Amino acid sequence: MTTTVLVADDQSLIRQAVTAILSSHPDIDVVGEAADGVQAVAAVSQQHPDVVLMDIRMPHQDGIEATAEICGNPDNDTTRVLILTTFEEDDNLVAALRAGASGFIGKGAEPEDIVNAVIAVHAGDTLLSPRATHALVERYVRPRPPVATGQRGNIPDQLKHLTEREREVLILVAQGLSNQDIADALVISPHTAKTHVNRTMAKLHAHDRAQLVIVAYETGLLTPGQGTSRQDQSQRPTSM
Predict the structure, then answer these.
(1) Which regions of the chain does DSSP assign to beta strands (E)?
(2) What residue spans define the domains of the chain?
């Protein structure tokens, strides 16, 4: 299955380099380029790519605003945004996730990692590099008192309509586990794990798994330092 991609970056050299990297893969088709957020939004409405590789800092309209506009349009429900950034610990990371971005890849990543990131995001995974995950959890997510999953009376309203198993799954997603990892941890099938994740996303109105990470920490279901994301065990980005 071919993955169609739009590359949005205000530096032509980076656009050309990324386009060349992606075009070398037989299952990726770069359908357009954009030099700013305005062009990116317009191109998405015309091309409807599977993935937008989006820079954050661009003139006229930055990548966060463009991401929010793209992800907020129901006509673009099959398009996912992958942020291409130099600053993986930038304050804009959480803003981009809240805008609907499905993850981040650093501009210094290896070519094969950029290709794999695009394919993973198109497949519905969330991609957060170890540095981005650390920044998300330790610096930018507003801490809340921890919540015991088995004590419903102490659960924030936002989580009360989740079942206990769904809250367990939410914790594991926030720790960076894949569906297979979740299945192994809970001794269930990968299909069942995926079903739990999808239901949790639907109940929390989350665009993707990256937003589940934010919910888990902001509601206190998980606190910084509680468990170790498997992403932190590798220097390369890992899809969740």
Answers:
(1) 3-8, 28-34, 51-54, 80-85, 104-106, 127-128, 238-239
(2) 3-125, 143-239
